[in-house]
Amino acid sequence: MSKWLLRGLMFAALMVIVRLLQGAMINVWETRATMISAILVAVYAVVALLWGYVDGRSDAKKNPDPERRADLAMTWLLAGLFAGVVSGAVAWFIGLFYNNLYVEGLLNELTTFAAFTALLVFLSAIVGVGLGHWLVDRKAPPMERRREDDDRADTDVFAAVRDDRDDNYSTAQTGAEAEPHTSPVAVAEDDETRRDDQTRRDN
To answer: What does the CA dihedral 135, 136, 142, 146 come to, rounded to 10 degrees?
Structure first.
């Protein structure tokens, strides 16, 4: 079973229990309906926060590098959406037979109430995940990161081109130094000798 589905099922079931308790307690203490609802919602949020905290600590210990950690935000977003829709549908169905459960129409349960549940689960869990990451990271030794030049050494095309150009230039310069140089005086003497030989042949 995937992570988000497990969490979604658990929080869907928990929300149904919370709403059943809410209906029963409000029927007993009608004047304290607001306080009862607030306390139950707070307890639900704390459970999501604690589960998110456990996920965050486990993920941070398993992957010290923050860039390699799991996408827990998406996990908890899907879990919250699933919990909201399923718990709304189940609560509406129970409300058909149990009058003490405060439910609205099916459309409202699958939209407004589902969105509230999804947001509550997601925000609470993400706060817990962030807290778990932070508590582990603050005690972890600093990670040794490779220098940027080392990371780019194998992919720096321009550096390779510069190296080839420098090698070609050094080879050309060495070849030029090895080529013999002819003195201007020697060239003039060779030309004069050729002219004298040509004059003797003509005479």
So the answer is: -120
Distance CA 8, CA 51 (A): 12
Joined tokens for residue 35: 């306080």
DSSP letters spanning 106-175 = HHHIIIIIHHHHHHHHHHHHHHHHHHHHHHHHTTSPPPPPPPHHHHTTTT-HHHHHHHHHHHHHHHHHHH
Q: What is the pTM of this model?
A: 0.68
Distance CA 109, CA 96 (A): 13
C-beta of residue 137 within 8 angstroms of C-beta of residue 60? yes
Distance CA 21, CA 36 (A): 9
Asked whether residue 111 carries a pLDDT value surpassing 70, the answer given is yes
